[in-house]
Amino acid sequence: MSYSGFFVRENIGQTVDGGQDPSQWSASPDIILCGIKAPPNTTDFTTPQGYATDYGNIVYMNQVNYVYLRALNATTAAATGRAWFYYAESDLCLWPSKWMSTNILVDGIGMNNQKIIATGGNQVCVSGPFLWTPPYFHDGHSDDDHYCLVSWMENPPLQDPPWTPTTNLPELFEFEDLLNFILDHPNMGWRNTVDISQHGPTWQKSTAITGARNGAQIYVGVEWKNLPSGKGGGTISYSIPGNADGENPPTINTDPPIPISLPTGNSTVPLDWADGFSSTITISYTQGSVAPPKGAWIAALVILPTDQMKRETLERVRQLQPERLRQLKLMDAFGHETGIEGEGVIVGSTQYRF
User: What is the pLDDT of residue 21?
Assistant: First the structure.
């Protein structure tokens, strides 16, 4: 990828030229959550060791959280940009219409942007603090809910007074529009991860799936990495409530649970997703005789099949971010193998980390 500007990573291993694990596009380490106390020295975030560190994602509800946004100045000269901080209620899909910017202070003023300065080219830099007070979720939400965080870097020349990135974005009507939006913005990072390391050997987690205004065939399911497998492995199951009026998509419920036979794998179901339909995916995990190692994960995924994409979009994926492509094992509505394989591109995910 040829890009010049402030670059925000999708995951810890990504570089300007690629190199990321596609299932982790929503795990940006450049959105730094420091809890309710200011860090003693923010320059630590910009050292080589600091840049190679993911500082975690604990959010303290209804308390002031210190949030910092980090970026790489992927130009050859000094530059001044503007860092924008947004958040959204948990969802597999990154629809900008759901981003929020309330309850954020910069220098005591209610705003969600500030300048970010690089004194030289190819330099890692970090913003000042955003003081964010995340509100409690409204009635009807569950204990599984969490906030997803968004970093947006405005490249120079800056507009004064600041413009609002979300105001100038085109409307996204289809899942393919969302994919192109992601490909178009290496200056954007999205953090949608949940720490489940303290949840014990058996847990269940849910997250929303907000569909596109225009429906399409998509794949929905799970992927996992570095889990114990075989005799010591556990099981995974997932369920997706279908359309109550009997139209597509149908209800998905993988029963019996899927044995983890390989350390890394996936299970996805092809669905005809109705116009504007929204649902949830609930993942259930039961540990076997061997506990997952630190750093293992399970992710819920929304995937756009390559045979449903325009040729030019697929070519952009292959040129810009080929790591997003996935070979998939397709299941039926009960989680039984169909013997059919598919290929798709991840457009949304929530990662549950051990």
Answer: 57
Q: Which domain holds residue 93?
A: 6-193
* Residue at 168 is within a domain: yes
Three-state secondary-structure class, residue 175:
helix
Q: What is the dihedral of CA 300, 200, 196, 273, to 10 degrees?
A: 20
Give the sign of the dihedral formed by CA 128, CA 152, CA 59, CA 351: negative
How confident is the model at residue 192, as a pLDDT? 85
Q: Is 235 exposed, middle or buried (0-12, 13-18, 19+ CB in 10 A)?
A: middle
Query: Which residue shows structure tokens 């759901």?
Result: 98
Whether residue 224 is found in the same domain as residue 287: yes
Is there a domain that residue 133 lies in?
Answer: yes
Q: What phi and psi, each to the nearest 5 degrees, are found at residue 177?
A: -60, -40
Question: Any bridge partners for residue 69, and if so which?
Answer: 31
Of 79-93, 107-121, 242-256, 311-325, which gets the smallest average pLDDT?
A: 242-256
Q: Considering its fold, how many domains does the chain have in total? A: 2
315 vs 224: CA distance, rounded Å? 27
Predicted pLDDT at 16: 87
Phi, psi torsion values for 306, nearest 5 degrees: -65, -30
| CATH assignment at residue 148 | 2.60.40.10
Q: DSSP 3-state assignment of 347?
A: strand
